[in-house]
Amino acid sequence: MFSGSIVALITPMTAEGEVDFSSLRRLVDHHVACGTGAIAAMGTTGESPTLSTAEHLEVVRAVVEQADGRIPVIGGCGSNNTRQAIRLSRAMEEMGVTAGLSVTPYYNKPSQAALRAHYTAITEASGLPQILYNVPGRTGCDLLPDTVGRLAELAAVIGIKEASGRLERVSQLKACCGDDFLLFSGDDHLALDFVRLGGHGVVSVTANVAPAEMAALFRAALTGDWPEAEAMQRRLLPLHQALFCDTNPIPVKWACAELGLIASPMPRLPLIPLEMSGREQVRAALVKAELIGRG
Asked: Site annotated as Part of a proton relay during catalysis: where (predicted)?
């Protein structure tokens, strides 16, 4: 269903902090043209915590409409409120999203048994295929491989975005979930090794600014052309690192604006635009990745 480079899409904002739907639709066309494998809208990189439910759904709907079947769309439907996660999943199922990306409940700090109950309730209430999303550095909650294995028995749970930063999770998840369960890295700098160990691709921040390059990197990796994949990874590694010089998505939005992909680098409060030291670091990484000239 999905493989390769999946972009964790930013949500463009105007200088006043409102959603810039014109830029959003242009980004969708850009990713189609560049060969991105799928678009994941309204995840962490999309600033989902700061958008209202109405805005959240409007963004996903706009991406689905603009994609128009040319590229699969994954909609962020996670919440630390199980009822809200169900509402989002149902709404996205109706609008034609290919799958949902369901982050673990943040702040609540649920047990593994509670996580099983949370995801079971979502799948019982909605027919939308679900990709679990484990990012303990953001949520304070770690979805363990044994728990994922039990959730994989649910027909609607088709994969996981694993962003714990622990490569050993790949073999642990394969042992618990089987070969058909989709495994995506949520860490750009580790994603090539993640695929080498048996993963299916990456849900990528870097793909916002280097979509063609990330698509080529993972096409090479998934077809076994490791010399080409490793060369591409060396070229992009400074960019993977620079895009996290400040809280995501502050640096990547600045980079997208610098490349002319969006009109404004503005995130929504409580995030603020990238400071000058960060801009210098990101600009240098864009040069090393050959995305802009040294000018």
From this structure: 44, 107
List beta partners, residue 6. Answer: 38, 203
* Model pTM score: 0.96
- For 4, the 3-state DSSP assignment is strand
> Which CATH number fits the domain that encloses residue 45?
3.20.20.70
249 burial via Cβ count (<10 Å: 0-12, 13-18, 19+): buried
Q: Is residue 258 part of a domain?
A: no
Residue 43 lies in a domain: yes
Confirm if 240 and 189 have CB atoms less than 8 A apart. Answer: yes
Candidates 106, 107, 119, 133; catalytic one: 133
Instruction: Name the region of 56 (left: φ>0; alpha: ψ -120 to 50; beta: rest).
Output: alpha
Task: Evaluate whether residue 186 is within a structural domain.
Answer: yes
Q: State the residue range of the domain holding 150.
A: 4-223
pLDDT tens readout for residues 135-185: 999 999 999 999 999 999 999 999 999 999 999 999 999 999 998 999 999
Those residues whose C-beta lies under 8 Å from the C-beta of residue 222, and which sit 6 or more positions away, are: 3, 4, 195, 200, 201
Exposed, middle or buried: residue 259 (CB in 10 Å: 0-12, 13-18, 19+)? middle
Can you give the C-alpha Rg of the chain in angstroms?
A: 18
Does residue 161 have an active-site annotation? yes
Report the domain count for the chain.
1
From the candidates 161, 174, 253, 288, give the one annotated as an active-site residue. Answer: 161
